[in-house]
Amino acid sequence: MITEGIREFKKKLRDSYVVGPFSKSSDPAFIEVMGYAGCDFVIVDLEHGPNSVETVQNLIRAAQVANTFPIVRVKENTPSVIKEVLDIGAGGIHVPQITGVQTAKEVMELAKFSPAGMRGVDRFARAADYSSMDKFQYFREANEAVIILGLEGKEAIEQVDEIIAVEGIDVIFAGPYDISQSLGITGQFDHPRVAEKVSEIVEKCAPKGIAVGNFVETVESAKKWRDLGVKYICYSVDVGIFYDACREIFQGIRRE
Question: Residues 211-226, buried b or exposed e (16+ Cβ, 10 A)?
């Protein structure tokens, strides 16, 4: 179990903010490098990446080696997918396609052991140190895993009040594109009304101890949303960051 890491991550979310990338890599070295570079977390992307549960297990190990927090974005909200990544030691799960309060409740049911939920029980998992942990300690501490819900579309954004009333949510991930669509200005993520909506969501989530997160691709954008109260800042994707760095280096060398 990585309970200590989970508690440290949650404390930083409460007290400050966290920054990290999505990752499509299947190479543990990439995860280690990002950890040594200082990111607070890495989101191993099963929804849009090439990984499997087998490869993700080693990516989680690499994150732990480099002292960065391992989060897995699952493909979908199903019992097998959520249970598998928690069993192999993910410190948090990022669940996409939350369309309303009912899907939010389903995640809690699948991600937590009784009495908080009905997650399938296995005390021989990697997350339980392969049964070397006291089973009751494991069941109790496993329920501390970070739960991040990705709101999808207009309907979900409009149900924020109902969704955040569901107990156990740590982060609401509401990207600017989804918010712009909910406001009828699809794609205009720099529109002042989008910033107003983000601030409104932050204000609603804060009293419940829920952080708000979104996706950014520039340092300037990250600072903007941070200043608006966004605490879970997902900065680009590892392959995109690598591409940008390579392009800048090689184009710079070729410039006369």
Answer: bbbbbbeeeebbeebe
* Separation between Cα atoms, residue 98 and residue 55, nearest integer Å: 26
DSSP state, 12? H
Please say whether the beta carbons of 225 and 233 come within 8 A: yes
Which residues partner with 44 through β-bridges?
23, 72
For residue 249, pLDDT over 60 is answered with: yes
Q: Rounded to whole angstroms, how far apart are CA atoms 46 and 80? A: 13
Say how far apart CA 228 and CA 194 lie, in whole Å: 11
From residue 192, how far is each of 24, 152, 185, 188 by CA, in Å? 32, 21, 11, 9
Strand partners, 214: 233
Name all domains of the chain by residue range, CATH numbers in brackets.
3-254 (3.20.20.60)
Chain mean pLDDT for the chain: 93
The model's pTM: 0.94
When pLDDT is cut at 50, 70 and 90, the band that residue 3 belongs to is confident
Residue 83, Cβ neighbours under 10 Å: how many?
A: 18
The total number of residues written for the chain in this structure: 256
Asked whether the beta carbons of 146 and 91 are under 8 A apart, the reply is yes
Please report the pLDDT score of residue 195 as a whole number: 87
The backbone torsions φ and ψ at residue 39, rounded to the nearest 5 degrees and listed phi first, read -70, 150
15 token code pair: 């007290």
